[in-house]
């Protein structure tokens, strides 16, 4: 057993793990009780488990927990709240993007990273940023519209 | 007014005994307590009681008990609109309880896009009936004839005296708040196709205040802020995490299990019952690790699957075990015969024939199936994302040999699965494990299980022929699908044989032959639409067992039927829309086609274009149509075919859509937009691959799906509102015509007919090079 501290959504959490290779996803969901991110593939192929690590969108299902102990982890719930929403969350609701919503961590966290570096991305840049995400309800175009709206382009 | 005084107002014992109803979005651990309160205070949950559908809280909130679920299409929001409209309270004051087998009656589960067509009508009618009875009660309370009264925002008052005199008004909350509407409801006696009859008339379209409004989806903020608890988020005290152990050769069963192989993993344990094999652990990651580490000796199995490349030969050659012309086939599956096809073909001067192949597909849910079960003290509660929670509860009761009333299936939001995916399997597995271990158990399928072990959409060979007379008119038409049954795996997990867990414990497969015909309203002098079903590839626990995928009678059948109509139009040098309209009689279709053509800017001419022979990128447009259960779709696809690479781009889809009265235009637009992207994935990418032993599509690399690059860039939806018609459903109908619309557009662009889905670049290249 090893003790680790994870800083998630602005709070420090102490956890005990017996496998340093355990993916961060399991630490967040199983040890700390976060409902987001979600398990989609465990292979880094879909994006459902995406969180920010120091502001960068990362797939937590293939990120060993021991590699992120000194880092700042942000989940979808920590990106913004109903009281203080991230502009992309507001736009997501205004565009009514989702169907089932299971994939949403990948899209919003990836989109938020894009906007942090590029506040007014072109449609092409948005599509490029989302190129490697999966959504099985088909919300792709709606997600692009939401990013355009959040960046004041729609 | 006190609640107990209200009862005295009614001579008909309209209300049952007092007892506050507790239904809230509570943490799962509190569900059981909430359920107990409800079950003790509420009249028995049967379809013949108004209390089974509608109740009113002490604060005037109307609770609508909707027996179906929302797979991501916004049903909760639309049902609230229907109920608010009919019962006359603000939309915000209607709360919808969905798909809990202990709180809602069985409405047949979510299926065939009938959430509004069937389920919505039940809710509208019962809400209208509640309003009618509440007005009657108010009449007694106010000492006025009911005919003189009306309702505004949940307050009954005189028509002549809208709001001014407090002595002449009474609210729903004052009348019945917190107690149950104990009035009889006439129903048809068929739970799976439940319909109800009431005295109250439904509102006329001219009276609609909430129906037709673009209300925002209620589930959206919870999803966007990560606060909505989904099925996979259920965590119970003492809960164990489980992973199933599947064979690498289909049909193999465990012969020996080396428990030592997982001894080093903390808390990991094997559960092996007959052919059912799983590992459990206190911590989820340890269950994952144990599932990867466990050493198992499997029995020899030779499933002799044909392999996906030889699948269509297998289907063509396999003996037919049931066909639509066999006696006793009725309803949707029945063969349609108009006139005499044999006579028609005898008279024909020209016969055209065509064949089309549709592959095996996986539900490929975004999230692999997940369920939690707590089986203790002679009862079972399961948390599930199945589309049919009542059937699920039936299946668990039979599997665990528990009385049905001791089993509760609580549906929760989950990943979009689009028909009978793996959720029912995960739920049964969790139930078996929980009973065995005496603790709550959460089963989470892994990605390879979601693709390799979910029940599959049926591969189909669809063949057509027509006979033309000398003028080029169709005088004989025949369309026959040959396929596996749509129910190698029943779409309702009602019996142990419907789930992998049940079959692993010895239940025989619940196979039954079933298929259908492509939805349309074509009228030919002599026409036949039929099907032939072949035997399943394995009789038990097959990873290729077939079942429904969203729009089951759409793409596999209509790729052939609507591509072939296009083939005939081209062979007779006729515009594809004009050609179809010659054989369609309803104004709805004619108006729909015109709306689609106008929006697209359709140029009336035959296909193909024949003016792009030297172009690297050939552009074309294709049309396809369907009618199903009163929903009419006209779909136009525009494609750009890259001759070198075989890549098909879809810059534009235009979908004219008539599904009767529009309840919520915004959610309908979104549902159509998203399903056309989803459908594009199926038509352009998706095909379950397998060899002689096993499915080899096990992740998103071996089962590719659409990503941003392949999404149709512009999806334009033309909604036709028909307020006089019932809502007929929009959840899946636009998918059916999609493969033919794309294929027909490729033909228009290149003169080459695509005969097999998916339209991968390799396959398109091959088709172009053959031309």
Structural class of chain A: alpha+beta
- Give the number of DSSP strands of chain A: 5
Q: Biggest sheet of chain B: strands, sense, closure? A: 7 strands, mixed
Radius of gyration of chain A: 15 Å
CATH homologous superfamily label of the largest domain in chain B: Aldehyde oxidase/xanthine dehydrogenase, molybdopterin binding domain
Rounded average pLDDT of chain B: 92
Distance between the termini of chain B: 82 Å
Mean pLDDT of chain A equals 97
Q: What top-tier CATH class of the largest domain in chain B fits best?
A: Alpha Beta
Number of domains of chain B: 4
Strand tally of chain B is 29
What helical percentage do the residues of chain B reach?
25-40%
Q: CATH class of the largest domain in chain A, anyone?
A: Alpha Beta
CATH fold name of the largest domain in chain B, please? Aldehyde Oxidoreductase, domain 4
Helix and strand sequence of chain A: EEHEEEHHHHH
Question: Uncertain runs of chain B with pLDDT below 50, 5 residues or more?
Answer: 1-39
Blueprint of the fold:
The complex is a heterodimer of chains A (154) and B (771).
Chain A: E1 2-8, E2 11-17, H1 24-31, E3 50-53, E4 56-59, E5 72-74, H2 76-79, H3 87-94, H4 104-117, H5 123-129, H6 140-150
Parallel strand pairs in A: 1-5
Antiparallel strand pairs in A: 1-2, 3-4, 3-5
Chain B: H1 3-9, H2 28-41, E1 54-56, E2 62-66, H3 75-87, E3 94-98, H4 115-142, E4 149-152, E5 155-158, E6 169-171, H5 172-176, E7 186-187, E8 196-197, H6 220-224, E9 240-244, E10 254-258, E11 269-273, E12 276-281, H7 284-293, E13 295-298, H8 311-317, E14 320-323, E15 336-338, H9 341-347, E16 350-358, E17 370-376, E18 379-384, H10 389-400, E19 407-411, H11 423-437, E20 441-444, H12 447-452, E21 456-457, E22 460-468, E23 474-484, H13 500-504, E24 527-534, E25 546-547, H14 555-571, H15 576-581, H16 587-600, E26 617-628, E27 631-642, E28 648-658, H17 665-684, E29 714-720, H18 738-750, H19 761-770
Helix pairs in contact in B: 3-4, 10-11, 14-18
């Amino acid at each position: 057993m090893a003790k680790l501290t994870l800083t998630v959504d602005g709070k420090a959490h102490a956890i005990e793990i017996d496998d340093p290779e355990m993916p961060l996803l399991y630490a967040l969901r199983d040890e700390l009780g976060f409902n987001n991110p979600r398990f989609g593939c465990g292979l880094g192929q879909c994006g459902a488990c995406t969180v920010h690590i120091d502001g960068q969108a990362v797939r937590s299902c293939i990120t060993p927990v021991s590699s992120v102990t000194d880092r700042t982890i942000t989940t979808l719930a920590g990106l913004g709240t109903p009281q203080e929403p991230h502009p992309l969350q507001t736009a997501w609701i205004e565009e009514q993007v989702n169907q089932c919503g299971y994939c949403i961590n990948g899209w919003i966290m990836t989109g938020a990273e894009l906007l942090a570096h590029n506040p007014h991305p072109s449609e092409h840049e948005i599509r490029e940023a989302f190129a490697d995400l999966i959504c099985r309800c088909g919300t792709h175009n709606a997600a692009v519209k939401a990013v355009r709206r959040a960046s004041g382009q729609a | 007014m006190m609640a107990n005084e209200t009862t005295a107002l009614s001579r008909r014992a309209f209300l049952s005994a007092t007892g506050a109803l507790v239904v809230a979005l509570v943490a799962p651990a509190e569900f059981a307590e909430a359920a107990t309160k409800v079950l003790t205070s509420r009249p028995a949950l049967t379809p013949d009681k108004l209390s089974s559908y509608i109740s009113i809280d002490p604060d005037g909130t109307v609770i609508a008990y909707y027996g179906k679920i929302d797979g991501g299409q916004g049903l909760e929001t639309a049902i609230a609109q229907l109920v608010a409209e009919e019962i006359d309270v603000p939309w915000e004051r209607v709360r919808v309880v969905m798909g809990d087998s202990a709180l809602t009656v069985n409405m047949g589960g979510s299926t065939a896009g009938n959430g509004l067509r069937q389920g919505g009508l039940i809710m509208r009618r019962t809400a209208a009936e509640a309003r009618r009875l509440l007005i009657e009660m108010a009449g007694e309370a106010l000492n006025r004839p009911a005919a003189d009264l009306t309702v505004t925002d949940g307050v009954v008052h005189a028509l002549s005296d809208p709001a001014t005199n407090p002595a002449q008004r009474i609210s729903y909350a004052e009348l019945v708040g917190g107690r149950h509407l104990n009035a009889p409801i006439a129903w048809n006696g068929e739970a799976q196709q439940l319909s109800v009859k009431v005295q109250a008339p439904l509102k006329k379209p001219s009276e609609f205040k909430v129906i037709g409004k673009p209300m925002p989806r209620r589930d959206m903020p919870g999803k966007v802020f990560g606060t909505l608890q989904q099925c996979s988020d259920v965590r119970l005290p003492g809960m164990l995490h489980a992973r199933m152990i599947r064979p690498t050769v289909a049909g193999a069963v465990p012969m020996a299990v080396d428990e030592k192989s997982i001894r080093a993993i903390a808390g990991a344990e094997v559960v092996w019952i007959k052919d059912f094999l799983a590992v459990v652990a206190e911590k989820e990651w340890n269950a994952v690790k144990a599932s990867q580490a466990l050493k198992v000796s499997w029995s020899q199995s030779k499933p002799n699957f044909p392999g996906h490349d030889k699948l269509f030969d297998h289907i063509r050659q396999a003996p037919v075990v049931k066909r639509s012309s066999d006696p006793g086939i009725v309803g949707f599956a029945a063969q349609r015969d108009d006139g005499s096809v044999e006579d028609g073909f005898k008279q024909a001067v020209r016969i055209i024939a065509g064949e089309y192949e549709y592959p095996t597909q996986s539900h490929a849910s975004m999230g692999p199936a997940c369920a939690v079960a707590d089986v203790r003290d002679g009862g079972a509660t399961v948390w599930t994302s199945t589309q049919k929670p009542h059937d699920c509860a039936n299946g668990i009761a039979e599997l665990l040999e528990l009385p049905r009333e001791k089993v509760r299936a609580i549906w929760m939001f989950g990943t979009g699965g689009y028909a009978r995916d793996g959720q029912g399997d995960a739920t049964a597995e969790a139930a078996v494990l929980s009973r065995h271990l005496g603790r709550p158990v959460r089963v989470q399928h892994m990605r390879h299980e979601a693709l390799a072990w979910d029940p599959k959409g049926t591969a189909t060979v669809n063949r057509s022929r027509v006979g033309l007379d000398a003028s080029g008119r169709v005088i004989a038409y025949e369309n026959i699908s040959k396929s596996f049954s749509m129910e190698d795996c029943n779409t309702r997990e009602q019996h142990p044989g419907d789930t992998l867990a049940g079959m692993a414990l010895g239940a025989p497969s619940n196979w039954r032959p079933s298929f259908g015909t492509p939805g349309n309203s074509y009228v030919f002098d002599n026409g036949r639409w039929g099907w032939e079903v072949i035997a399943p590839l394995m009789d038990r626990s097959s990873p290729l067992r077939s079942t429904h995928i969203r729009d089951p009678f759409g793409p596999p059948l209509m790729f052939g039927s609507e591509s072939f109509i296009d083939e005939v139009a081209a062979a007779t040098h006729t515009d594809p829309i004009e050609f179809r309209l010659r054989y369609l009689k309803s104004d709805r279709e004619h108006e729909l086609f015109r709306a689609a053509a106008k929006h697209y800017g359709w140029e009336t001419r035959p296909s193909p274009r024949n003016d792009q022979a030297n172009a690297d990128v050939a552009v074309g447009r294709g049309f396809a149509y369907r009618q199903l259960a009163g929903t009419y779709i006209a779909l136009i696809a525009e494609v750009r075919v890259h001759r070198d690479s075989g890549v098909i781009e879809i810059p534009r889809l235009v979908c004219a859509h008539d599904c009767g009265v529009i309840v919520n235009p915004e959610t309908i637009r979104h549902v159509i937009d998203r399903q056309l992207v989803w459908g594009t994935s199926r038509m352009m990418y998706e095909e379950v691959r397998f060899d002689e032993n096993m499915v080899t599509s096990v992740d998103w690399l071996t089962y590719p799906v659409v990503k941003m690059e392949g999404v149709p860039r512009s999806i334009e939806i033309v909604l036709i509102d028909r307020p006089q018609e019932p809502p007929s459903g929009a959840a899946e109908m636009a998918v059916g015509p999609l493969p033919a619309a794309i294929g027909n557009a490729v033909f228009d662009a290149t003169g080459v007919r695509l005969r097999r889905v998916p339209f991968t670049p390799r396959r398109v290249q091959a088709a172009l090079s053959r031309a």
